[in-house]
């Protein structure tokens, strides 16, 4: 009688056809799997009526960073360094009094 032997075992965490993938292809596959699992988890939570809690952004907000940037320029020019992203943000929001404080506007006008 001929018995069918078990297929050769694969290392833990690998799937069929995965052993001949390049490291880059493996990373891409891992990212895709992670994305799919995250999407399924989100669907499951939504079905249960729960939502994922968003993590609060760490670090200062854009208005605070802009104020720090202007304060550094006004008070300590030796340490001040040009930052294109801050300049752009300031130019786009310079007339929004909720985002740019009056004191910062004075410094901004001197900077320009």
From TrEMBL:
Domain WKF: start-end pairs: 68-101
Region called Disordered, residue ranges: 1-27, 40-60
Organism: Lates japonicus
Name the record gives this protein: WKF domain-containing protein
InterPro entries listed in its UniProt record: WKF
Positions with biased composition (Basic and acidic residues): 40-56
Taxonomy, superkingdom: Eukaryota
């Amino acid at each position: 009688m001929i018995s069918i032997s078990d297929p050769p075992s694969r290392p833990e965490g690998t799937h069929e056809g995965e052993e001949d993938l390049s490291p880059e292809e493996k990373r891409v596959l891992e990212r895709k799997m992670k994305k799919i699992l995250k999407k399924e988890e989100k669907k499951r939570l939504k079905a249960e009526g729960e939502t994922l809690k968003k993590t609060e952004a760490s670090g200062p907000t854009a208005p605070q960073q802009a104020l720090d940037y202007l304060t550094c320029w006004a008070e300590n020019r030796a340490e001040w360094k040009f930052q294109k992203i801050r300049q752009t943000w300031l130019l786009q929001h310079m007339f929004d009094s909720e985002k740019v404080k009056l004191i910062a506007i004075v410094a901004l006008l001197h900077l320009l």
